[in-house]
Amino acid sequence: MSAFSAIGEEEEIESEDFTPGTEPQPTWCPGCGDFGVLKALKQAMPEVGRSPEETLLVTGIGCSGKLSSYFESYGYHSIHGRSLPVARAAKLANPELEVIAAGGDGDGYGIGGNHFIHTARENHDMTYIVFNNEIFGLTKGQTSPTSPKGHKSKTQPHGSAKSPLRPLSLSLAAGSSYVARTAAVNPNQAKEIITEAIEHDGFAHVDFLTQCPTWNKDAKHYVPYTDVQDSDEYDFDVTDRREAGQMMYEVESKLYEGEVLTGRFYRDDPRPSYSEEKQAIGEMPDQPVAEQYFDEDHQWDRSYDELLDLHK
Ligand SMILES: Cc1ncc(C[n+]2csc(CCOP(=O)(O)OP(=O)(O)O)c2C)c(N)n1
Ligand code: SF4
Ligand SMILES: [Mg+2]
Question: What is the pTM for the complete model shown?
């Protein structure tokens, strides 16, 4: 697909446009599922038709957080669990940007869980990819919110006593308007789902199963997998909240019994995004802040000095 460049010329967008020219090669371990996310994202961008100059990728901290270094676009490697507030602010300031946030299961479902719930509830228009490897990878394999019950690690040497969090069900309950799960071992589906998620208007959450062969030795347990959309066994309406919820519950239970089910589980296309709702009640300016900033004639309600005085 083509798009207009920063200087207004129409250009073809290719996957390789998203490979940085100067950044280092990925330092992820051989066989790491994170490579699958990078590949799917790079393949999705030409389908979506957005160029690196039109895209912002905000990441958290973790092996997953390194994604923004290996993907050519505007990038912001934020702090642990805080990719979503940064992404929200950027989208509100410049609605034209294609905003993608990404991070790990510890990052998004643990320390950043509150941001996840409320960004979903408010239906901010962005894509959120969670690399779900069921452990803290970067810090050497501690138990995470999605580690299975009984999972042994240095922090839980007797095995985790707690049942894992159900990210799909949580996402639906919080208010995400698109919820899917894919896996690094299923690259075709991963590309399709990431494309759909980016094209979706509203908060699109993709739980991306990424094996960690270094610290989670059950790395191969995402194979074999079933795509629920390709299987006659699973018949449900992705636009029906109740049916989607039942399906997610089944999917999440089965993952820990060794059966990997992936696919699209919920979508609510008509639901207005956060900005649309705010504009409808007159709480958001028509002119985005990013444009106001570059408009020399813009009259700000308060000067910078006044704002500083307010905080004294
Ligand atoms: C506020 C804060 N607390 C803790 C850490 C240490 N820390 C860095 S990454 C990480 C967990 C990473 O796990 P996950 O988010 O699942 O990402 P992965 O490495 O598995 O991709 C932790 C606890 C930190 N950097 N900042
Ligand atoms: S420690 Fe695990 S998650 Fe991190 S790069 Fe290595 S394989 Fe990937
Ligand atoms: Mg992790």
Answer: 0.95
Asked whether residue 287 is domain-assigned, the answer is: yes
Number of domains in the chain: 1
Give the residue, out of 82, 131, 139, 151, with the most ligand 1 atoms within 8 A of its beta carbon, to mutate for a pocket test: 139
DSSP state of 146: T
Considering the domain boundaries, does residue 5 fall inside one? no
If you measure from the C-alpha of residue 136 to the centroid of ligand 1, how many angstroms do you get, rounded to a whole number? 6
Residue 58's domain comprises 25-310
The identity of residue 263, as a single letter, is G
Tell me the pLDDT of the chain (312 aa) as tens digits: 656 555 566 679 999 999 998 867 899 999 999 999 999 999 999 999 999 999 999 999 999 999 999 999 999 999 999 999 999 999 999 999 999 999 999 999 999 999 999 999 999 999 999 999 999 999 999 999 999 999 999 999 999 999 999 999 999 999 999 999 999 999 999 999 999 999 999 999 999 999 999 999 877 889 999 999 999 999 999 999 999 999 999 999 999 999 999 999 999 999 999 999 999 999 888 788 888 888 888 888 778 888 889 888
In-domain check, residue 81:
yes
Separation of alpha carbons 17 and 113, rounded Å: 33
Which of 126, 95, 98 minimizes the C-alpha distance to 287?
Answer: 95
**What's 76's domain CATH number?**
3.40.50.970
The dihedrals phi and psi of 196, each to the nearest 5 degrees, come to: -60, -45
C-alpha 294 to ligand 1 mean position (Å): 36
Q: With a 6 A CB cut-off, is 141 part of the ligand 1 pocket?
A: no
210 lines ligand 1 (CB under 6 A): no
Q: Which two tokens stand for residue 21?
A: 């020219």
134 lines ligand 1 (CB under 6 A): no
Report the distance separating Cα 228 and Cα 42, nearest Å. 24
Report which bound ligand comes closest to the CA of 108: 1
Does 67 contact ligand 1 (Cβ within 6 A)? Answer: no
**Alpha-carbon distance 135 to 215, whole Å?**
8
Residue 8 lies in a domain: no
Q: Is 63 in the pocket of ligand 1 (CB under 6 A)?
A: yes
Q: How far is the CA of 132 from the centre of ligand 3 (A)?
A: 6
